[in-house]
Write a structure and sequence with these properties.
- The chain has twelve helices and 17 strands.
- With about 375 residues, it is an alpha/beta fold.
- It has two domains: about 130 residues, 3-Layer(aba) Sandwich (Cytidine Deaminase, domain 2), CATH 3.40.140; about 160 residues, Dihydrofolate Reductase, subunit A, CATH 3.40.430.10.
- The strands form three sheets. Strands 6, 7, 8, 9, 10, 13, 14, 15, 16 and 17 form a ten-stranded mixed sheet that branches. Strands 2-1-3-4-5 form a five-stranded mixed sheet, with helices on both faces.
- Strand 3, helix 3 and strand 4 form a beta-alpha-beta unit.
- The mean pLDDT is about 90.
- Keywords: Hydrolase, Metal-binding, Multifunctional enzyme, NADP, Oxidoreductase, Riboflavin biosynthesis, Zinc.
Amino acid sequence: MTDQDYMQLALEEAWKGCGFVNPNPMVGAVIVKNGRVIGKGAHESYGGPHAERNAIVHCTENLKDATLYVTLAPCCHFGKTPPCTDAILKNGINRVVIGSHDPNPLVAEKSVEILRQHGVEVTAGILRKECDALNDVFFHFIRTREPYVVMKYAMTMDGKIATASRKSKWITGEAAREKVHQDRKRYTAIMTGIGTVLSDDPLLTCRIPGGRNPVRIVCDTKLRIPLTAQLVKTAQKTRTIIVTGSSDVKKRSLLSKAGCEIFTLPLKDGRIDLKTLMRRLGEMDIDSVLMEGGPQLNSAALESGIVRKVQAYISPKLFGGQQAKTPVGGTGVDSPEAAWHLSAPLITKLGQDILLESEVTPCLQEL
């Protein structure tokens, strides 16, 4: 097997921490000696042992002269756990193969320097593209201290997210909906607008066995959310944040008693200032937000510049209707040149549906 083969095994290990390590990165490690895998491990929970230490613990024999494959550069500082570089040196591992470099200034290139100073051979950049993609959330958050925002919607092939009578269940099939729940597990929070709450009364939980429910966030400028909404009735069990500009003391008190947290933020053009909201969420270590809103929230998010990725689930159906909703509302752009530009999409087939995923790239409005 090659370095790439062993790094692929480490990537598979890393996914074991999906949804449970935020705001830390997902990391996987594999230890190889004489052409045999003798240990594997992942960073499985926030504050728990790092992947390298878990791999070492699970080793079946002496580690002297072994090779460690790890998807992200080992830490070299004391945090919630001791430095992984110490464990590598202590156990006599003589080669370390790294996928991604760590953008954390406490790590950066320091761990590589430490290992090389102690005679350890270090090879970096193996399957770097794949390893970087694994931690797009972590890399964004560590650099900006703001959440990585994913705007997700499902639509028909004629671009409709609901019929003219506002019915939308279900546009996509089971496989696509399963992927959505995987992402609800992966991302720390899920955000929607009051329009979606009033029309659909969603629960916004993760329905994967053993999964983790995201923090639920509702943008509700005028505090119109009903006390009978599923989000309110389940707020004692699943953290729920209502973001508003309203000063309705009575309604705020009732929502608080139901278990909701109320954030009051300044309004911008009569709407929640989403950029300010992202900064506040970042201060709370909420590193990622999956947006499942309607046309107005989607347009506001794009206009505020908070969206990093777009996920478009496309179903082979046609709804028609001039009044049927499309994914992005608002006034839109004046010309094609002023569009929000996206990267070439990653295309995934999910049953009969297709998922297109693109990063948002700088548009002409920002140049």
